[in-house]
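Repro case for the chain-ordering regression, as requested:
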Amino acid sequence: MKLGANILIGGALFLVAVLAGVFAPWIAHTDPVMDANLMVAEEPPSREFWFGTDAQGRDIYSRVLYGARISLTVGIFAQLVNTLIGTALGLSAGYWGGWWDDFVTGLTNLLLAIPSLIFALAIMAILGPGLTSLLIALGLTNWSFTCRLARASALSLKSQGYVQASKVLGYGDLRIMLTQLLPNMLGPLIVIGTLGMGGTILAEAALSFLGLGIRPPYPSWGSMLSEARDQITTAPWLSVFPGLAIFLTVLGLNLLGDGLRDILDPQSRSRRL
Amino acid sequence: MKHLALLFSFALLLAGHADAQTPRKGGTIRMTAPYGAGLSGLDMHNTPRANDDIYGKVVHRTLYNYDSDKGVPVLELAKSVAVSNNGLTHTFKLRDDVFFHNGKKMTADDVIYSFTRIMDGKRAFPAARWVRIVRGAVDVEKGQATTIEGLKKIDDFTLEMTLTDRVDPGFYFYNGNTAIYPAGEADKPEFLQKPIGLGPFKFVEHIPGSRLVAERWEKFYKPGMPYADRVVIAIMGEAPARDVAFRNKEIDLSILGPAQYVAYREDPNLKNGILEVAEVFTRHMGMNPEFKPFADKRVRQAINHAIDTDLIIKRLVKDKAYRATSWLPLTSPAYDKTRKPYAYDPEKAKKLLAEAGYKDGFEFEWTTSQNESWGLPIVEAVLPMLARVGIKVKVKQVEVNVLIDLRNKGEFQAFILSTQSGPDALGALKCFHSATPMTACNYYRFKDAEFDKLVDAAGQTDSADERNALLRKADAILYDEAPVWFFNYNKAVMAYQPWIKGLQANATELTHQYPEHIWVEESSPAK
Amino acid sequence: MLAYAFRRTLQSFPTVAAVALVVFVLFSVIPGSIATSMSDDGRGAMDAEVVQRMRKELGLDDPVYVRFAKYVGNLAVLDLGTSFRSREPVSQLLAKRMWPTMQLVLAAMGFAIVIGVPLGFVAAMRPGGVIDAVSMVTAVSGLSIAKFWFGLLLMYLFALKLGWFPTFGYGGWWYLVLPAVTLGVSPLALLARTTRAAALEVTNADFVRTARSKGMSEARVVRWHVVRNVAVIVLTTLGLQFGSLMGQAVVVEKLFSWPGIGSLLVDSVFQRDIPAVQGCILLIVLFFLVVNTLVDIACAVIDPRIKYT
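-- result from build under test --
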């Protein structure tokens, strides 16, 4: 793909999703929860209901727009938590080494070993459904790749001349990590972050599908898909539109990440973690 | 001559017609176990789940069967029963032609063994709930006795059973988890892998999560039965997957959800293969009277008036339910056909609320599961309706397990569930008796002296008509007091292939088919 | 080599122990229990006496440290306990269902490798070209599709409409095809992208240029260096994906009535059959660690320059 195309297309898709969520109250046609009219339940797309109506008689178009808010919030913030935890652990582990490094590596292996979906499922079962629980569950279970990346970067960067020089000059560890190591690994981190966001959005859909997602009756793309699963053969538009929304957003994030990787990290050491 | 020829051809015609109704011997019945989480194991005593009883009816037998035509339990493993001692002692004359799948003949010893095993307090078998009605069973459960005092073997085929209460033992021992096992066999570890039962088919293999296979038991005690050679139960919890498999003719029976119900009804190829039955489950929203607004009868009635129940049934549940007019279901002999359900009347609801002091409405928390028929979608549909009369609802969605836990502990303001309300009408209404503790089944903390009197009287009488009349009156009190929002009675819908005959419209659970009655015609792709 | 394998195995023990601990803690605080799941989703009344006895018999009311001690004690003698649901030994349950999941995961990975790696190579040959673009978008799409819908789609097309495969079930290899493809779509996508990136990077790397300048023919260059490096990366990715694939197999197993450990795990979680859950997770973790050790050894064999301490 031409260098810019990935970023352009991916960025555009993602931007559309974000704008849809942000401006939902203005561009939606109805209230996503209260405006339910059972008389028009499960109607296919029409001039009045662009995406059709769901089993409760609610406008799917409006619900997809509002659903962007939840799905993207989960995607963005859970990934933020992931990145924070992963970077903090990985950076410090790579820099300090020793027993802390062993501990963090062990922890990372632990996380990689337990299927993350099951881990998140168990946490959700304990905390009960809801936005905060989702953020905690997804934030706590998906930081391993970020951690590995940060650690590998720290390992290779810490032997650089300027870092050694800073140490000699008496700079504190924290200062070195934050001002010298972190900026040099931002590129790959952003790439993993973007790609990871797609993963958390899909994870939210999977958790909703298994029955432990967002607190109802607010819509999220995942819970809309889950509600529609028995009507796939009878009313496909119930799943097509939220499904397309997830697909296009995650596609956009993936393309964006790929494009950013081509620019920021052409050597792309990320695979050798 | 001409007359003879006519007569001859007429006879041929008749004979051909009769042949079409003669059960064909052979073929494979391909059932599905459609409820989530597969089979929990092969030991019937250990499970109260409807899903497991699908297998139970194929491989095992209980003292009574449920007769779908008559709507009552009938003797199965016994030829007759004599009632004495003021209705407490039942003397069973067991059949003497029943053989276990290991060739051993069934005797009273096996019944005693099975019931004693069920009451082993250390194993905590769910079936203990039913066998506890036998006198002395509680002592075995507590470990104070090794045999059930109320079960006496008179001879090999005569069993005397004394109960602690005047009830019809049929309602207790038609339940699949009171299956009769061969004495001494069930405690061998291989029994859990290769069960031995009395059913029309004997166990062949179980691939957990995929299927269970059983083949004809040649020594089954009903002559000529079972008709089919094999039964295959496929574990298929996902409705759309069943839909595809059914259309592809890979399964013979499939329970339909509301969405498929509509699609199959409208499909000319499928609409003639639908079996519908009004089942004995009442869907309802239970209200906790300890939560102040719900303590007032007017509030509870207001809620019943505020919800357009018929619309929800028609549009959301796709007519796959019958409007509830009180607690007892349509098929109950004590059901009052003349009573009209609560009318949809938001104005009246607002008036009642104002009278009760909630002119500006109030807010409550509604605990629900994700279930499509009596869970979240229903709650979501009711939300705007209650909002219109000023009642705000906070939805608390939890797993079904957790919902049950909260309900049993009384930690809820309102919950929505589907609960069995038949075929034992007396047992069902006893749950609203004030003497019944909340931990047993009076989750609604219902207390009404008049109601108690009626239910007590119904338990004392021997006349079925009188009992039904009393229960009908009690049900009417429930209607008036409205401890719950009466939602609907379940309509079970099962799609079946055109080559399957002999299905029973079992109101207790449509998937519980006694397979000896089912036969498979030539046109089945499964030989 | 053997010493390395041995050392890695030893290093796995703390991980397994940690997993056992985490799982134990998680499931001691989870609300609901096997006793409540006995009510058959609320259809019938729960018998209070039975519930009480069940809790006592299964040790659900014991204090946490007692339960933990019993758990650890059992694990030490490799006793995985008895399933709450079926009263069978957990090891028996796992033994019956482990192989089908292995079949499914291996078949899915096989499908992913056979289609994904060549796709990645082809895309890398002409970066920026049409094939590159199309295959990458397809690959990226694979990561974005939810398995439930994809599986149903495959069922509808290839079982119902075309009749090539059965809709569901477990038996000969033809039952494996649809589930394996459903599960294999996301590792396929990941592999295609990873292979492409790895191949691109390697083709531009110094040592390839050196080899070229030494006069090696193009084909030999590719075959020797590129393939070897890519193989290492592919194997590593696969190894890491293994655990996640076993988790993702859950949805596929339920859809196709595939008798695997994924559906057992999810059913057990929802029914709070704690010994079964613990057993499943430990088994999955063990396999993950074994597979990754094997992958690391294989990588060392393929590319001796990779040194392991």
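Ordering looks correct now. The interface with chain C takes residues 1-2, 5, 106-107, 109-110, 112-118, 121-123, 125-126, 128, 198, 202, 205-206, 209-210, 225, 229, 232-233, 239, 243, 246-247, 250-251, 254-255, 258, 267-268, 271-272 of chain A (CB under 8 Å).
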